[in-house]
């Protein structure tokens, strides 16, 4: 009868652990670690790995958001990755409700890939996420409604005054120059809602910024993780896909 897998070791990793058991001479080697679900890259300064937000959970989240200041409300995604949260927000809310969707991330290659994909969609037929068939009308929406409201920046979330690099902005689509460098301080001041989908270690670094934002009357939306230092919140979803909406201080 074959030996049972060791407790806590996935079956796909059993073989690599057994080779140390059967070959004691190999114990001098570094035992390979079980792969993490996330791919950490702390060496490059990333405060949290990128993980896409499930679209169904995002749809549910947007259903519980109220943009109550016409012509002013905007969404800021801290650690936006490929920008899909922003795109889905812009597809969900018309300009009368959401005038601006902005993302900042430290992973420049990921941002540039997102930009290229978004801009490419202007000249080709792509799948409409709300339909089972392809349509060119969706491309017109990208061109006329989404791009004028979308902004992506590369930079450090923890540095309020460092100039951010523009990846895609409305001014770029109009072929005009940007008046002055954008900073985290300006973005936070201008937004009404802040979205975060980061690990607890990363969220802890952003607590001062998030607390200040709540004091300024902004909402904080946290996917999956509670932020203990923040109060006045509502919880939605289940244990696997939970999110928190933090309300401004009264």
From TrEMBL:
InterPro entries: FAM173A/B, SAM-dependent_MTases_sf. GO terms for biological process: methylation; regulation of mitochondrial ATP synthesis coupled proton transport. Keywords: Methyltransferase, S-adenosyl-L-methionine, Transferase. It comes from the Eukaryota. GO terms for molecular function: protein-lysine N-methyltransferase activity. Residues 1-21 are annotated as: Disordered. One of its GO terms (cellular component) is mitochondrion. Belongs to the ANT/ATPSC lysine N-methyltransferase family. This is Methyltransferase domain-containing protein. It comes from Entomortierella chlamydospora.
């Amino acid at each position: 009868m074959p030996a049972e897998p060791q407790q806590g070791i996935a079956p796909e990793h059993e073989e690599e652990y057994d080779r140390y058991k059967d070959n004691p001479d190999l114990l001098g080697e570094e035992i390979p670690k079980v792969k993490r679900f996330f791919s950490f890259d702390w060496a490059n300064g990333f405060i949290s790995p990128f993980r896409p937000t499930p679209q169904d959970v995002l749809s549910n989240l947007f259903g519980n958001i109220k943009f109550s200041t016409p012509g002013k409300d905007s969404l800021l995604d801290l650690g936006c990755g490929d920008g899909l949260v922003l795109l889905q927000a812009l597809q969900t809310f018309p300009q009368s409700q959401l005038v601006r969707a902005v993302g900042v991330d430290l992973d420049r290659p990921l941002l540039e890939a997102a930009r290229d994909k978004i801009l490419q969609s202007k000249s080709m037929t792509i799948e409409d996420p709300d339909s089972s068939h392809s349509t060119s009308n969706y491309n017109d929406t990208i061109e006329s409604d989404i791009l004028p409201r979308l902004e992506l920046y590369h930079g450090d979330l923890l540095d309020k005054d460092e100039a951010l690099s523009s990846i895609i902005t409305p001014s770029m689509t109009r072929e005009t120059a940007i008046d002055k460098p954008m900073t985290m301080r300006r973005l936070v001041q201008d937004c009404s809602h802040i979205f975060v989908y980061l690990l607890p270690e990363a969220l802890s670094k952003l607590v001062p910024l998030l607390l200040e934002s709540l004091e300024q009357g902004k909402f904080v939306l946290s996917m999956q993780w509670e932020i203990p230092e923040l109060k006045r919140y509502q919880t939605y979803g289940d244990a696997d896909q939970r999110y928190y909406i933090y309300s401004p201080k009264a």
